[in-house]
UniProtKB/TrEMBL annotation:
Protein family membership: Belongs to the GST superfamily. HSP26 family.
PROSITE patterns for this protein: GST_CTER, GST_NTER
Record-annotated GST C-terminal domain positions: 83-202
Transmembrane segments: none
Source organism of the structure: Piscinibacterium candidicorallinum
The protein's name in its UniProt record: Glutathione S-transferase N-terminal domain-containing protein
Annotated CDD domains: GST_N_SspA
Length: 202
């Protein structure tokens, strides 16, 4: 059985919880207290971060790598395209989400980062980059077309946390929030939320 070591407020862990619930197979989620991190976390992941997935002798970290593995082990519903060309394109999208958005999420999640100027810069970058993305969400139901995919999984935890992070999107970014509601309505999305995440957005 797969075991996921997960942070109860960690957006990266939320991605993996979301995929596990989408697949509806047997798994165990172990909550990790990031304020009092157990020693074995750094043994399993040299970066000392969650999420971490353990299955028999396999130990994986990095949310997108974990999610691709889960997707390949349990192909239904398939979250990465079957076609290698499309799959390569999704990987590029995932990489760019990390570069353009989640690098700033890391800043906001970093409890050691107390410099308010640095935090404000991260909030502004997230607001501006999401606003640039917005027009693309008027055309299709999900990020890459009509089907829900790994790209939607990857961005959802950020969209859920906008108010929590103190980010207000301008009016022209409204299509993003309509798109977000389509993800938030998925049963697996709701099931995967921890109690601490549920109260981040009312
Ligand atoms: N790139 C990693 C980021 C994971 C990450 O930043 N996790 C944070 C929690 S959200 C963490 O474990 N931080 C270690 C700590 O707080 O000590 C991924 O996608 O899994």
């Amino acid at each position: 059985m797969m075991i996921l070591y997960s942070g109860t407020t960690c957006p990266f862990s939320q991605r993996c919880r979301f995929v596990l619930f989408e697949k509806g197979m047997d798994f165990e989620i172990r909550d990790v207290d990031l304020f009092n991190k157990p020693d074995d976390i750094s043994v399993m992941n040299p970066l000392g971060q969650v999420p971490i997935l353990v299955e028999r002798d396999l130990t994986l970290y990095e949310s997108n790598i974990i999610n691709e593995y889960i997707d390949e082990r349990f192909p239904h519903p398939q979250l990465m395209p079957a076609d290698p060309v499309q799959r390569a394109r999704v990987r590029l999208v995932l990489l760019n989400l990390e570069r353009d958005l989640f690098i700033h999420v890391q800043t906001l999640e970093n409890r050691q980062e107390k410099n308010e100027k640095v935090r404000e810069k991260a909030r502004n970058a997230l607001r501006d980059n999401l606003t640039l993305f917005a027009p693309q969400f008027t055309k299709t139901k999900f990020m890459l077309g009509e089907d829900f995919s790994m790209a939607d999984v990857a961005i959802a935890p950020l969209l859920w946390r906008l108010t929590h992070y103190g980010i207000e999107l301008p009016k022209q970014a409204a299509p993003i929030m309509k798109y977000a509601e389509r993800i938030f309505a998925r049963p697996a999305y709701i099931e995967a939320l921890t109690p601490s995440e549920k109260v981040m957005r009312r």
